[in-house]
Amino acid sequence: MEQTAGGEDGQSLLGDVISVSGAFEGSEDIAVARDLARAFLTDVQAVHGLPVSGRVMGMVQLVVSELVTNARKYAPGPCLLTLVINGGAIEVTVWDSNPTPPAILAPDPTRIGQHGLEIVMAVGQSFAIHREPVGKRITTAIVLADDPGGDAAGRQL
Questions:
Q1: How many angstroms from the chain centroid is the CA of residue 157?
Q2: Cα 71 from Cα 69, distance rounded (Å)
Q3: Which residues of 138-151 are buried (b: 16+ CB within 10 A; e: fewer)?
């Protein structure tokens, strides 16, 4: 696992961007990716003073786990995880070397397994798949603070 953060205190040299990245090569690194997300969000709250609820902490770790697991399972080589704080949300991006977009299956409570992307799309306020010159990048955003007037993804009810 490789971890990078620009500038001092994990802050990017670009200004107000707070981000961290890690490269993961083995399935044992899925737990390390979750740990990176938890440590990053703990710093976001403690060092930068941004609110991060316990529910959001758990959701981000779940999303990281699902996306990194898929990348390790379906793509050869390493995958890259990037976490960026942007406008009160955390953007979770995972790049892998397989250019084929994942199959997004319709919800089916009788299906055993293959619910990962369904979960990621349900808890995120956005979801996007981008093809890259090599591989693909999947990005979702999760609102940092609980919204009492909205749902788990920060959407107004």
A1: 24
A2: 5
A3: bbbbbbbeebeeee
Percent of the chain scoring above 70 in pLDDT = 83
Consecutive H or E run containing 81:
strand 79-86
Q: What is the mean pLDDT of residues 99-109?
A: 84
| Residue closest to 97 by CA, chosen among 29, 33, 25, 3 | 25
* Length of the chain counted residue by residue: 157
State yes or no: pLDDT of 154 exceeds 80: no
Sorted by sequence, the CB contacts under 8 Å of residue 14 that are 6+ apart come out as 6
The pair of three-digit structure tokens given for residue 152, joined into one six-digit string: 């788990």
Q: Rounded mean pLDDT of 107-125?
A: 83
Mean confidence (pLDDT) of the chain:
84
